[in-house]
Amino acid sequence: MLSCRDFVNNADQLLDRDLRVSTRIAVRIHLLLCRHCRRYVKQLARLIKAIPFMHNKATEEEVRKVMDCIHSHENT
User: Residue 42: which domain range?
Assistant: First the structure.
């Protein structure tokens, strides 16, 4: 069984449909069992859809803040 951390590491590949069959099955099983990761993958999909509509390029500081926030949530 995948951990949530393993799921997060594979979520972008899941959305891109770029996973091996065995990993895809493990990810799907994890999604059935974990509501937190279901919410995460929905949010990630929405973010990916929104990216083309963002007009201003993020500054390095903004990118760093977002990445710090993401990494702090991964450790909880």
Answer: 4-74
